């Protein structure tokens, strides 16, 4: 799932917040929408096109449905008008509009400031619930999972109390994202499964909400190392993909590519990843482009195409350097280290690994730190092998020290997948070093972590 929460998510779990709540204002916007549609000589079905329905347009025009920023932007573009054309002149609306537009444009830091300022005005509970929901999404967008949990839980409470089930469902979704980001996969999965049950029993939210929940469940399953379940959820998404815009379809294909790569189907991963990259480029989604290029680099590396992997990883690094996203840059630098190692450029690999670990530590990115330490151990093993042709005479002390640190950090993260990978590397090296008992113990703990995940 691609919210730019953290690279293990990529994710974008993003959707626009409801802009208006007041019935009178909704009627005013609906009237303006109808007038603009008739002036453009379009039927309701023609305005809806292939993204919405005639019934939805009719409900908007009557003022009985609340337009989202996504819908308002879509209809405005089809009618050749600015979104502000449909909005009321009430000055009190503009600060809220500015917050929603910042969120819709992925300017999360700006959205956080705007929503926090609006909350300081002590709005009524039903409005407060909406604002907190938007703030939870913005917090998730900048990787602040604990804050997303805190405000998301408040949003759920307020929206439930107001009887606003659809909005409360969106707030629960961002609450699940916060738990996912904090490694609480059991909690995030439980929330998402409950949401899926509600949607399949008739709860109407947003057109692609079911697909987003399924993608969230796929991400949770992959975080737990259950790639078969992850692929199964993603196959379900395929059936409802028509409800998604280009960016969301790109995110779906990104997740599918990652799942294929983890299950060893590298060619399928490349096909899905290439399609995803085209969609991200068409929508100008730089975060998604950078994340996808890094993932494709790893797929081409698995196919031993180091030149293509090098080019993709370098391009990915350029995106995140421009965006100033050092959390993601930690992952990309580690990918570059892996590519340099595969090409036999050990000094270059070492420099990339040092940079990756520094970026990971500076941003608190435990997954990237553990992965980088594992890569550093592989670089060290390659150096040892180059210096000592006789396998029986090799001393793996430095490489073992790096893996011991990786295992310690992985255990502290309480992430089963990260723990399993670090312990498996440790077991492999201990066996090669002639320490079968310690190696077997590492394997057993790795299996226990896999079962727990």
Give structural attributes:
single chain, disordered N terminus, Serine Threonine Protein Phosphatase 5, Tetratricopeptide repeat, mainly alpha
Quick synopsis:
This protein is mostly helical and 453 residues long. The protein has 22 helices and no strands.
Question: What is the count of DSSP helices, taking H or I runs of 4+ residues?
Answer: 22
Structural classification: mainly alpha
What's the pLDDT, averaged over the residues? 83
Count of DSSP E strands? 0
Please state the CA-atom Rg, rounded to the nearest Å. Answer: 24 Å
**In sequence order, what are the helices and strands, one letter per element?**
HHHHHHHHHHHHHHHHHHHHHH
Which architecture of one domain would the CATH scheme give at its second level?
Alpha Horseshoe
The percentage helix is over 70%
Shape: elongated
Question: What is the percentage of strand-forming residues?
Answer: under 5%
CATH topology call of one domain: Serine Threonine Protein Phosphatase 5, Tetratricopeptide repeat
CATH class of one domain: Mainly Alpha
Largest sheet: none
Low-confidence sequence ranges: 1-21
Distance between the termini: 18 Å
